[in-house]
Amino acid sequence: RANWFRNLHSLRLMERLRDPMLVALARLPPFPNLRTLDLSDNTFGYKGLSRLVTSKAFPNLVELDLSRTSMVGDDAAALARAKWRLAVLTLRACGFGDWGPQAFASSRLLEGVRVLDLATNGIGPKGVKALADSPRCAALRHLDLGYNLLGKGGLMALARGKRLRGLTRLTLSA
Asked: How many CB atoms lie within 10 A of CB 150?
């Protein structure tokens, strides 16, 4: 057993991590000092993600990056069940469309998130409205919705969104 793992503050496991490895990671003893977990560019799915979000291995996680990890179907719903108290959540280019923001907007996962990166996910007006109307998004200060499909309806939802009044930075690249 490698007890020095307990000293890690940041862990980055990128490229080709599949469900069996993610399940094994989720079964490890707690990493009490780990604050940042970067699992971007991986190929795990619902099974691995479900185990990760219910794992006790990361009790003090505040930053999670799952960018460029496909989240279609129930994957976004699995992530929405996470109970971490995150401050930064990066989900760039995960491909979940409106389904992702709709699942996250009603979950505890977004409570306390100050930086949310959802760029390049095919999010349209329905997904934007779900975020803009969600009381779980009240802590957001930086929201990146660049390279999505917002359209006029998405822009109107942002403009009217009473829950996003705390934003100090908004990215809407086309």
From this structure: 20
Distances (CA, A) of 1 to 4, 28, 29, 59, 115: 9, 10, 10, 19, 35
Residues 163-172 have a mean pLDDT of: 95
Q: 141: Cβ–Cβ under 8 A, 6 or more apart, which residues?
A: 114, 115, 166, 167, 168, 169
Alpha carbon distance, N-terminus to C-terminus of the chain: 49
Backbone angles phi, psi at 155, to 5 degrees: -65, -40
Inter-CA distances, 96 with 25, 27, 68, 79, 134, Å: 24, 27, 11, 12, 18
| Neighbouring residues of 43: CB distance < 8 A, sequence distance ≥ 6 | 16, 17, 18, 69, 70
* pLDDT tens-digit readout, 109-143: 999 999 999 999 999 999 999 999 999 999 999 99
Q: What is the mean pLDDT of residues 28-55?
A: 95
d(CA 81, CA 84): 9
